[in-house]
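Sample 3 of the quickstart, ligand S-adenosylmethionine:
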Amino acid sequence: MRPLIELSIPYDSPRDLKVFLDAYGLGMRKQFGQNFLINPRARTKLIKALDTAQGDEVWEVGPGLGAMTAELLEQGATVQAFEIDPGFIGILKALFGAHPRFSLVEGDVLKTWRHAGGGAYLLGNLPYTIAARLLAVLIEENRLFTRMVVTVQREVALRMSAAPFSKDYSSFSVLCASAYTVTPLMVLKGASFYPAPHVDSQGVRLDLRTDVDPRSYPSCFKPLVRRLFSSRRKTLKNNLQSFISSGIMKDRAKAAAQDILDRCGISEDRRAETLRPEDFIALAGAVEELQCGA
Ligand code: SAM
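Result:
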C-alpha cells in the first residue's frame, strides 16, 4: 500500500475514483451495498438538511472513503463513523484517525450500534442491503435521534413517507411516522453514484416528533402494528381478535376486540392500510388497558 500521508481522494470523479481504488488495491463489494455518492451538490444538500451546530454529535453510517465525513468535520460536528469494509477503514484511519472529533466503530453497524454511545444526529448514504432493517431496529429499540438524514433506495423512501390508503403504506411507514416527521428530499438518479446502481435513490429527513413522546407508547404498539398489517385480507376486528386471543376465551376475545374498536371510534371492517399512525397508537393503548385490567 502507498503511504497515505498526502492522501487526496477524487470524490467526484468516477474515472479518478477507479484509478484511486485500483492503486490502493481496494475493490467495491456488492454485498456491502457500496455506491459512492459522487455528486458534490447532493452531499452538501444532505449535510445541510441534517442542520447540525458546532459540537453536535453525529453518527455516520457507512462513511466509505469519507467524502461526507470530511464535510461534517469541517462544519464542527463530532463524528462517530460506523464502517464494515476493512479497506475503507484503513483509509478512514489515515485520513481522520488523528482528528480529535472523529472516532470509528469497525464492523457491522447492525451489531455494533448497541455498544456505541452519544449521537443525537444520524447521517448515512445507507447501504441498500441494510437500510430498512437498520432504521426499523433503531426505532423499534427506541434508539431515537433528534434528526436523521439518510439516502435510501427510492422504493424504501416511498414506504417511509407513505400515507394511509397509498399502496406503499406498510407497518414500516407507521413505525417511521410514530417516532418521526418524515420529509422526502431529492431523488437521486444512478448517475449520482459510483458505481451507478440501476435503481433511483432518495434522500429522506426524519425529525423526532415533539408533539408526542415515542418512548411512552404501550409495549404492544409495535407488535400490534406488525400483526394488523400481516394479514391484510382479514378485517381489523379479526386481526385484533387474534392478537389479543392468547390466554382468553374466543368469545371473550371477540367481545374485547369490538370493545377496543368502539372505544377508539374505529369501525370493525376497516383495514390496517386505512388507519393513521394515531389510530394504531390509540388501539395499542386500548389493548394495554384491557390486558392490564384482565
Ligand atoms: N458514505 C459513502 C458515500 O456516500 O459515498 C459510502 C456510501 S455506500 C452506499 C455504503 C457504505 O456502507 C460503504 O462504505 C459500505 O462499506 C458500508 N457498509 C455496508 N454495510 C455495512 C454494515 N453492515 N455496517 C457498516 N457499514 C456498512
